[in-house]
Amino acid sequence: MADKLQEQRKEVIENFCFAGNYLKDTVWGNGHINDTYLVTFELDGGQAKRYILQRMNKSIFPNPVELMENIMGVTSYLQNVIRENGGDPERETLNVIPTKDGKSYYIDSQGEYWRAYVFIEDATSFEQVEKPEDFYESAVAFGKFQRCLADYPANTLHETIRGFHDTKARFEVFKKAVEEDVCGRAASVKPEIEFVLARKDVADCFGDLLEKNELILRVTHNDTKLNNIMMDNKTRKGLCVIDLDTVMPGLAMNDFGDSIRFGASTALEDEPDLDKVWCDMNLFEIYTKGFIEGCGGKLTKREIELLPMGAKVMTFECGMRFLTDYLQGDTYFKIHRPGQNLDRCRTQFKLVADMENKWQIMQDIVKKYNT
Predict the structure, then answer these.
(1) What are phi and psi of 220, to 5 degrees?
(2) Cβ(339)–Cβ(266) below 8 Å
(3) DSSP class of residue 279?
(4) Angstrom distance (rounded) from CA 104 to CA 158
(5) Whole-prediction pTM
(6) Which long-range contacts (CB under 8 A, 24 or more apart) does 357-363 make?
(7) Cα-atom radius of gyration of the chain, to the nearest Å?
(8) Which residues are bridge partners to 133 per DSSP?
């Protein structure tokens, strides 16, 4: 089996426009979606040149061609903006390596889709916030991503995952899961079900505002975790936003909110002891300051006002999705122990409740930077 996979990679590597002579390839990173390899070549002068090679997951992203159209459009645009601002487009955004027939992806003999990027040297991505400055730097980087793409026509992007942050639609899916109760679990989670049903206004909030044309659809990343920022090894500043698979039309508040949901929580996502779980207002303020600074005036006052709601909506949506999956038999999110999705949903709901208790504080923090 290993030999077969090696042969498959050999075929793929030979069909990309890599510079130099092939030396080796190794498994890279700890992503859960795509299969990622670090490929090393030797240039004529003897120095090493490294690339990232990925097999795209067709079960998660059923249309890899559209996905790569998004990535090519956004990265090409970013390269121009970075160049105009005196930056380094080789390091500050992803650079796609073309195939020998000029495409952005290669389909191998097994029908699998592959892509390749230039490896960003002297930079690191971190799985967890090691110090508050890291969280701030990620905020600036994701804000800058918004700023640089503010004039990009978001409506030209494909939805790589349909209805990804359509919270109204996810609320209806949740109600159906409760009604069907295919695993007979609903009776044991009545408080959690009631928590969701009592917050229909949260589920509907952004969808209703979009229908009234009160919000702007922007280019959004949709997976704004710290580990999707490459930090420069020398400066420890945010250098490059990576993992662009979920770049789609969306709301800036959702990108902000997903970062808060994950990064301002005081506990792991599946922490069973809810006494350890709350939303850290110091980290909330650090991220708010960095994100607004990074956006550089490109967000409207209304969008900035709604940043706390973005944190609440994204946390609520995620908890609702965990609970939906628990009711349906843990078929979407991977679990490593029984009840893990239930623990995950409870941490999110604890965060939502904590945000509700601190709502005025969150609004005051945002107001402080909404100048």
Answers:
(1) -125, 155
(2) no
(3) B
(4) 16
(5) 0.93
(6) 358/279, 358/281, 359/308, 361/281, 362/281, 362/284, 362/308, 362/311, 363/308
(7) 21
(8) none
